[in-house]
Structures
1.
Amino acid sequence: MTGSLIHGDQVSCSRVGGAMRRESARLRQHAQTLVEALADLGAQEGRPGDLSMTEKAATTAIAASLRTLRATADDLDEAGAALQRYATDLAEGHELGRRAERRVKGAGLLLEGTRVVEPWGPAGAQEAERRRAQVPEVQSRVDLATAHVGRARGRLAREMTRLTESFTAHSRDAHSAPQAPLPPRGS
Amino acid sequence: MPVEHRVEPTLLDAVATASTRSSTAALDASHELLAHYSDTGDAPTQRAVDTLIDHAADALRALTDSFAEISYELRARGREH
């Protein structure tokens, strides 16, 4: 799975992304059920908008947590989608990396990290010149693979950072959700 | 003196039940996020992903508590009547 040029496991990234999106879908379903229960409460006795003050306050309190739940589910879906895109990019990067490594080997060259170098040891002048001449082209293949993955990592890190800030705000919102007095029940 | 409008108990029960289920779903989601590990292949990217997962799990646990509190209050009120 992991070559010496490109590191990372696209399967694990895809799995985590998928789990995030599944959980997001479940949370949205629960949010919808809660929306319907609140709508029934608001529309009781065919008098929508005619709730008492305490009922309105309770509805507001629940609705605040509900908004946070939906926003969290949306961001979880976005994070999962970003990880799944990264998994695809990483898989492409591995393929580009494997091709580059085959090219390095085929040209009789070596990789030092991401740098293509000529091997040590005796070689005929003609052979040494042949290898040297191939270095730029082989290096460009290596650079293609590393740049592809580098861009993907940059995109993923930016998305993760942005969404982390959102999740922090959601935590704050959930902790500070208004605790309104709840309505009296009928008998 | 105005007569206080009273809510149909079954409607409050439905909201309490939905709230409990939302609380449980949020807790399950936080556990699910923390149960997996992704290998991005790059330390800074890995930190960004791990940090996001931690913060997402925190938000979900906060929602777990929030909905549990709502449900508890609704049911406590139900026991008063």
Note: Chain B touches chain A through 54 residues (CB under 8 Å).
2.
Amino acid sequence: MKGQYNHLIVRNLKELGVNSKLLSPSVPLEQLESMKPDALVMGGGPQSVRSPDKLTGELADAARLIRQVKLPMLCICVTHQLLATAFGGVTEAARKPEFGPVEISVLDDGRILEGLGPSFTAWESHNDEVVRKPDGFQVIAKSSNCAVEAMRHEKRDIFGVQFHPEVSHTTKGVELFKNFLGIVEEHKRT
Amino acid sequence: MGERLSVAVQGFHPSSFLSEETARLRELTQGMKVISAVSGGVDSTVATLVAREALGDNLFPIMIDTGLLRVDEPEQVKERLSRSPLSLKLRLVHASGRFLSSVKGETDAEEKRKKFRETFYQVLREEAEKEACEYILQGTIAPDWIETQGGIKTQHNVLEQVGIDPATTYGFKIIEPLADLYKDQVRALGRHLNLPKEFSERQPFPGPGLLVRCIGNVTKEKIRVLKEATKVVETSLSPFNYEQYFAAVVENKFALDPSAKTISATASEALGLPKSEVHAEAFEDRVTGVKGDQRSYGLLAAVKLSEESRETYGWLQDRLRQLQTGIVEKFPDITRVALLVKERRGGRPLSIIVRAVSTRDFMTAAVSAVPWKILKDISQQIMKEESVSRVYYDITPKPPGTIEFE
């Protein structure tokens, strides 16, 4: 994805000792599989997913990856919205868009948000938001403006966050990546 | 961008970066001359030191005096770099007239940046021809090309990453030793190379200099006032640990839409103050921001509180944050919000805006909580300038603002 923060995702993961690579979502599935990845993190970008039937370019490719890839997955910002619509949820223009610091209330501090509750400051930059979560997902965090700040699949290791854990101003962003890497390790063992 | 092993392993190791990069530079230039474009900032200075390790006397550092640098800056940089332990011999190239005339009459921020870039590389082309030199080395780092590629703003030192081939356009090739690094990694590398603290920890200064802090039209008077205001802000805020702090100048012309009435209503609601205590309007000249990963070239709201409320609210960071988000959420065309610190009556043409931010990598930035008393002192000093009638403090984080104004 074209988001400017996506390079920071790679930087965060490298600093945590993980060999990570930034790819375009147009990467063919065979090529992705040949790299033998353990997990997929999808970043943000300037696009909008408000009309899910008419996705083009990077978003159409990212939607394809969300459907095809069976690995643990973390989707950030616009791909969090894409994840929601791909599984039947709804994304609309935010009543109150969020830019800069936002207070996140943790609703379920298990798994990916472990140790992040009861609340933390995250940085955001979005004009759209998930207004209805898809079936089979649980909402695990919200803010005063946005009802679905984070969600997780009830059975699979798939997570979406509206905020940006990769930017340094998100106080517990590194913890979130560590939690995700723990989940990835667990997934590899089972 | 080429993946380099030392960046790919856990953390960042200056010594392995250095040995790989110097080997790459030697291989690339094969004993040929290289001109290094130095601004005195940490990026170009570190890039030059890395290159000197590799190329020795084949490296020719120059600094272009664009006329858009701070008071006495070119001479000071030249003098400081010449001292031990750096002992870099810098040649100054005077081109201030060319830069000013190239942006004359231009008010659009991106056009100003592109014209600056064009003049910058024309000057470098002439220098390369004079020295019969094929390579220009510059201090471009990761956020420069990320923001330029992302269409947030055109950095003057990014060409290849946006599809401009310097060899066919300007007749030289470009070397960017730090292109994959972030600011904090560059500083670490600088410390490793024994760069004195005054360089390695120096606050960033944009390549196009004061051009991007002179909002809208560029005039000699605006640049002159801005240089003086910059000196006041830098002197007053240098004891604090803010990563970046500076002044910008804007003309006192205000937009008709959204109206002062509607912005004032939103501002008083966000602060929970009576309408009579709040007056807000937006400057006519646009400023740069980033909303939802996209460039936002929007308005700068200017909020004035009654003197008594100002004394209270100037200290209350949370309330100022509510003011800023309240306005930006409500008006899609407003990107940034500034709070009046001091004003005086009379129809003077200019306002100064003070900005101070805290940041690790300059990709996001928080507004620094400058003590209200310090802001008032700064304003008092800046008001000595005849053409300035108001001083504001920018209360916008990045996003939705950027750190610089254009």
Note: Chain B has two domains: 5-200, 214-394.
